[in-house]
């Protein structure tokens, strides 16, 4: 299968790299600066599951058109619209678009751009970041990518994808309920990224405090109340399940949003917390913790925008 990974960043670099390690036909769509860097250094992955040094095939949006069987979307949500434009000449009638972004609103964006049929479901659990020297650094061993038809069917194309993913040194899991899995991940990450970015600490010290534990629990319950009201396909008792997940993670675990804040970069707060806040308002569900976290992140974004303006003045 011809695989295109859009963005050789923290997650794209990781999962694309693992597929390349296995010997799959993987190409990365990158922008000029990243291309130059990768041409100089190769794709370096420093991983709890084994380091890799790879020389990947790289293309940019202006390269000759060629069609791919599957396209892994691994940009940040705020780069998605641009990325959609950039991949037009690589998408054919049979191409599957597999999004790995956190959140849920991007599915509709992709469906609008490429049609119901092409877009399958996906998500990942992995803690990776780009180091200052451009390497993909994995900071805890989990490396799971979950994918499946949004209809829940086992189609011929999903079986082909399963074959392509099997035998990789990462956990690729085919799901027959990917819509629900994506909502569950959305719940988990909205809470995890919101709480860690608000408290500016890894998850361990936050959850060890009784007040921290209660805040995480109350936040999950708040988010679930909104999701239930808008009839999201979540299972009963999911707040408790996600609380257990949060409580069993490594104490030093950070969210990618928190790492973005630490690097003074933009965050996906509108895509994660903002989307649910809008939904909450529409169905008149009170969400005081979500509002606090949203406000904190909005002010952070305003501050970095102001700093940038001052730097450029
Ligand atoms: N990091 C993590 O641990 C996890 C992240 N996620 C989710 O995965 C998604 C991606 O996050 P992450 O990998 O951390 O982000 P990164 O910023 O590390 O990587 C995104 C990459 O996308 C590239 N990109 C953006 N636009 C384009 C474009 N038009 N064409 C080609 N490349 C492009 C960027 O390239 P450039 O260098 O040119 O800016 C960048 O390298 C997010 O939704 C995040 O929430 C999910 C699970 C875990
Ligand atoms: C919490 C984590 C690392 C789990 O995959 C994640 O999804 C993120 O921070 O974006």
- The CATH homologous superfamily of the largest domain is named NAD(P)-binding Rossmann-like Domain
What is the number of helices?
12
Q: What gyration radius follows from the Cα positions, in whole Å?
A: 19 Å
How much of the sequence lies in strands comes to 15-25%
Number of domains: 2
What percent of residues adopt helix (DSSP H or I)?
40-55%
Unreliable stretches (pLDDT < 50, length at least 5) are none
Largest sheet: 5 strands, parallel
Outline, from the CA principal axes? globular
Which kinds of small molecule does this entry bind, naming each only once? NADPH dihydro-nicotinamide-adenine-dinucleotide phosphate, ketopantoate
Strand order of the largest sheet: 5-2-1-6-7
GO molecular function, one term: 2-dehydropantoate 2-reductase activity
GO cellular component, one term: cytoplasm
InterPro entries: 6-PGluconate_DH-like_C_sf, 6PGD_dom2, ApbA, KPA_reductase, KPR-Related, KPR_N, NAD(P)-bd_dom_sf
Keywords: NADP, Oxidoreductase, Pantothenate biosynthesis
Write up this protein.
The protein is an alpha/beta fold. The protein folds into two domains: 2-176, Rossmann fold (3-Layer(aba) Sandwich), CATH 3.40.50; 181-312, N-(1-d-carboxylethyl)-l-norvaline Dehydrogenase, domain 2 (Orthogonal Bundle), CATH 1.10.1040. It is built from twelve helices and ten strands. Strands 5-2-1-6-7 form a five-stranded parallel β-sheet, sandwiched between helices. Strands 3, 4, 8, 9 and 10 form a five-stranded mixed β-sheet that branches. The mean pLDDT is 97. Bound molecules: NADPH dihydro-nicotinamide-adenine-dinucleotide phosphate and ketopantoate. The site of NADPH dihydro-nicotinamide-adenine-dinucleotide phosphate (NDP) has 31 residues, from helix 1, helix 2, helix 3 and strand 8. Ketopantoate binds at residues 102, 125-127, 189, 192-193, 255-256. Pfam families: ApbA (PF02558), ApbA_C (PF08546). Catalyzes the NADPH-dependent reduction of ketopantoate into pantoic acid. Its EC number is 1.1.1.169.
């Amino acid at each position: 299968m011809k695989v295109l990974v859009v963005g050789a960043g923290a997650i794209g670099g990781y999962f694309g790299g693992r597929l390349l390690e296995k010997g799959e036909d993987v190409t990365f769509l990158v922008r000029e600066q990243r291309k130059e860097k990768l041409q100089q250094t190769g794709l370096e992955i420093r991983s709890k599951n084994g380091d890799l040094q790879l020389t990947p095939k790289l293309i940019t949006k202006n390269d000759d058109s060629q069609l791919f069987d599957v396209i892994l979307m691994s940009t940040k949500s705020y780069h998605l619209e641009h990325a959609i434009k950039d991949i037009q000449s690589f998408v054919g009638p049979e191409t599957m678009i597999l999004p790995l972004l956190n959140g849920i609103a991007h599915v509709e964006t992709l469906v609008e751009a490429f049609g119901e049929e092409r877009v399958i479901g996906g998500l990942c659990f992995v803690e990776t970041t780009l180091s200052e020297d451009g390497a993909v650094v994995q900071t805890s061993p989990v490396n799971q990518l979950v994918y499946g038809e949004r209809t829940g069917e086992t189609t011929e194309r999903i079986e082909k994808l399963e074959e392509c993913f099997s035998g990789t040194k990462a956990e690729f899991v085919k799901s027959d309920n990917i819509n629900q899995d994506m909502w569950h991940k959305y719940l988990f990450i909205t809470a995890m990224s919101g709480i860690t970015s608000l408290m500016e600490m890894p998850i361990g010290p936050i959850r060890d405090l009784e007040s921290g534990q209660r805040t995480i629990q109350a936040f999950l319950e708040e988010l679930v109340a909104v999701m239930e009201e808008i009839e999201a396909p979540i299972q009963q008792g999911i707040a408790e399940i996600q609380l257990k997940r949060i409580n069993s993670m490594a104490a030093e675990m950070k969210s990618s949003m928190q790492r973005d804040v630490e690097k003074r970069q933009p965050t996906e707060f509108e895509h994660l917390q903002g989307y649910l806040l809008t939904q909450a308002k529409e169905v008149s569900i009170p969400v005081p913790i979500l509002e606090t976290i949203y406000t904190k992140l909005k002010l952070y974004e305003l501050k970095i925008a102001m700093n940038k303006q001052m730097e450029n003045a």
